[in-house]
Amino acid sequence: AEVAVLGAxxxxxxxxxxxxxxxxxxITGALGSLAWLTGRQRDAQHALIVAAxxxxxxxxxxxxxxxxxxxxxxxxxxxxxxxxxxxxxxxxPLPAWLRTTISISAACGLATAPVSWFQFHQIPLLTxxxxxxxxxxxxPMLGLALVCALLTPFAAPVSAALANANxxxxxxx
Length: 173
Prior knowledge:
This protein is an all-alpha fold and 173 residues long. The protein is built from eight helices and no strands. It has helices at 2-16, 20-37, 44-58, 66-80, 82-88, 96-120, 127-151, 156-172. Helix 5 (82-88) crosses helix 6.
């Protein structure tokens, strides 16, 4: 399965394009799979450092790319800012999935705001509620897309109906 994951990661990077955020995700994901295959412990923070070093070794000017800056700021926020925010929300009566969504979205919004201001001269103010609302559609969209891809060769009409349902999720998003 981990070898298949490596193939899927390579396919994803090739299909989406080699932007810094995609390469960061690809490198860190591949390192996680390689760690499992070699019997080593997975370390997300180490993988993030290796990904940054690889991208900057390939092209040092990548550090000026907004995608690089936003991607790494967001992931660092997930590692270091989201846990304290989640702990702060623990006593709140919100469902666990919503507390998680809020903590990650708030952390990423705070960490990426300076980059957004510097690069685009604006800061999105509705990050947290927009991500909370989007969370409702993302999982069904991914699941429907996977099922559609698997069914298309065998049951095109069923796949087309599921793709239509996926379109409704995308329209909501």
